[in-house]
Every structure is written in structure tokens, then in C-alpha cells.
């Protein structure tokens, strides 16, 4: 295990004591906290930093605490990892949505927190949009409790959608969630799904099987051995009127109208499930299903890496020009958003495959020390403070003293895996042999004991590695 960088140079037996402390600290769940900004001209001391929040529901991988320091440059625009505290106000509602929004205030509050104005763009793919979609499903089911239909009429849907956005914005959320998450008021109407009323739905669908499959979604199994997802697909097919079997997916390729109908019918199925479950249980289930979806693909936008290809083609040894081009390219893409540990593995494979296809056959990740965390947004001014989000659902947490916080995984220097095959489609995160890259050895770390240098961390980062990902 490598010793971490701290402010002063430490040698000898104290390093061994530090390692003992590291092992002790690794038993705790940790989060990256975004603390309250200091007053202009005030330099905070280490003792003024807030403590890390309590552990969350899921604990897939233990990491060590990394506290992002107070932003020292007053008068300059805040970087995205230093959000301002949200301003709240009373929302202006249309008065035409026949729903008591206070009943679902727990879900709207969670959504507003997850989609805060300052962070929504960098956590939209993993945290904000999955929670926003869950809110809409729950709202649709809640609305159906006072009607005989599982959807809203177009006019009412438009008014209710405006009210939802207004309520979220009044609690500090991004007012542009519709465009950020590609959601419209028509998502509440059932679209082209032919069956929308409750009575016909319950006659056409095996509701007992559906409820049994989705009332409790197993976070450890659902993404690789799904139970709820096929039940939803089967129910959507049964109410869609499309004559096909679940295994005959080739029939719908190239037929957008049927694909749209199935997706619209899935929205109706979600509404029925939300109608039957408690708000919190439905939200947990929907978020877990979303995590299965978002972790199947890399959300980053890779532009053609021409300079990297030119500098790194036909390499057999480390090249300063190659590594400089590669690091510059990755610095650009990592500014896009925070991603999960599983997305980072897929992103590394996708980008590596792009390079291989262009003639870069050498493992440049290894030559240039590219880590998984390099594909995710980095903490401002901290070369070692990259953050990967958990593959399981996570929420932003807000309190009046420490601001926003969120849980990170694999915050340490886990090497990015270079694709070993010619096709990225062969990558599977469900295979039992799938694991993280090998831990660094003493040979790769050097044999001169602890190498400690100065960085700007206010708290040390203790490196604790694990060998496998959750589920």
C-alpha cells in the first residue's frame, strides 16, 4: 500500500503509524463534503472544517475521507464543485392542477436537493434525472388515486408539469430540468399506449406477478439477474396491443412507432406500480431500475482524439508527447460531469477502443498513469481528488452548516483498464470474474519507503483498495 501525500515530508516509523490509522479509518463510510464558503478575506483553519455526514443506505465500497477545502479566491466565479447555498421562495402555481402537492413533499424535496441549480448539470445523468423521472412516475400514480385512469389528460398534464417545475425551482432546483433530462409534460399522458384506464389495465396484466416482482427490487441482483425489469416489459407488451413475444425483439427494430408505444406503455406500468407502493418504496425501486440503465453506457462525449492518435501511434515506450496529448484530452472530457465507477470502466473501454481502432495498440493508460477517476470530474485545484460516484443510487445531501455532500467510490489511483479485445461490446460488468485492475505492487511503487510530498489537501487521503465491484 502506498503512503499518501500530506503537507510536510514524513519519513521512517511515522509512516507505519499512518498506515495503522488508515486501516482504522477504512471501516467508516465517507463522503466528499462541500463546506460553507468563508467570508471574504477570511482564511479558515483545519479545525473549522465540518465533519463528514453519516453513512448512507448503501455501502458498496469503503473509501477514505477527502475534504474539498474552502474556496480561497474571493471575488472569482465559483467552480462547479463549490455550489452556493440555494435560495428558496414560495412557488407560483397555475391553480389548475387538482393535486395536493404537500402530500408528496418528501419526494419533491429529495428531487429538489438532487437537482440543485449549482450541481444538476454535473450529476444529471446519475443523480438528478433518475430522481426527477422517479418523481414524475410517483406523481402520475398519486394522481390516479383520485381518478379511474393511470395517466393525465394533455391540458392537465401541462399545468401539473409547470407546477412541479415551479415547486422544484422554488426549493433550489434547476428550472431547466425539462431540457436537462429530456422530459416533457406528455410523459404524464401515456402517449400512444392504447390502455390507460385502471380497470382495463388490471384485466390485461398479471398484476400479482408485477407487484411481487417490483415491490422490492434487489440492489445486488436486479442489474445482472433482473426480476422487475422483465416484469415491467411484459406488462407493457400486454397493454400495447403489439403482436410479438418478449424474445422476438428483432420485430421492433426499425419500427419507431412500436418502440414509442412500448415506452409509453412502460410509463403507464410505472404509474400503476407507484399507485400500489408507498412513495418511498416506489422511489427506491425506480432509482434502482434507473441505476441499472445508466451504468450500462458511458455518458461522456468523446470527440475524435486526433492529436492523441498522432502522438501515441506505434509506441513501445513512454513518450512525453503522447502522455501530454492524452492528459490534455482527458482533462477536457473529465470536465463534463461526475460519473459512476462502472461508467468509468465502460468509458475507459470505449475510449481505448477508439484509440485501438485508429492504430494506437500500446496500453497508453499504463504508460501515462491514467486512472479510472481521471474520467470523472476532478475537485477544483486537487490533482489527487477525483471523484467517482457509486454505481448504486445516491443522493446529494444538504445541511445548513456544511452545504452539499455526496458519496464517492474508488477515489484512489485504480488504473484504467485497457480493452483487451477488438470489440467494446464484449465488455460485461456482470461476469463473476469481472474485477478491478490489480493492486499496485512494491515494484511499481518503488522501494525507498514512504515518498511524501506537499499538496494542497487540508485533510490527507488514505488509499484503501478493494478487488471487486459491487454486484
TrEMBL record:
Pfam families the record matches: At1g61900, SPARK
Keywords for the protein's UniProt record, in alphabetical order: Signal
Record-linked InterPro entries: At1g61900-like (IPR040336), At1g61900_C (IPR059003), SPARK (IPR043891)
UniProt organism field: Anisodus acutangulus
Domain At1g61900-like C-terminal positions: 296-369
Key word Signal present: yes
Domain SPARK: 95-248
Full protein name: SPARK domain-containing protein
GO cellular component, one term: plasma membrane
Signal sequence annotation: 1-33
